[in-house]
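Table S2 (continued). Query chain:
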Amino acid sequence: MPPIETAHRNQDAVYWPVLSVDFYGEYTHSVPEDIKVRWEWVHKERLDPKGITIAIDAEVVANKVLAEGSLLWLGTYESWLATGSSGDATKLMQVSGHDELKDIKGRSTRHTAELMRYKGGP
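Corresponding output:
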């Protein structure tokens, strides 16, 4: 059986990591990179730190921490470019939270992230 940090991650995703937050609270993103994930579409709600209810549309298992505010799109960067650099913009997602799960011996870590639909452009 593969280790928990790599198990079942057989889907491609484009990941735009967050570089910074500007004066207006808007995120600045870095150049995109392809990563391997396990992507699951879900429909649930949770409270953010301010107590506002937000909708969670997908959950992702990755091999690293996906920073809050980062963007993800299911597919490869090559397919993103092939669709006119906008892809299916309705499926562009923003990381709204993350969690880490260590194995019983504390040697390996599984990183999960909650995603919500993104309303802007990359």
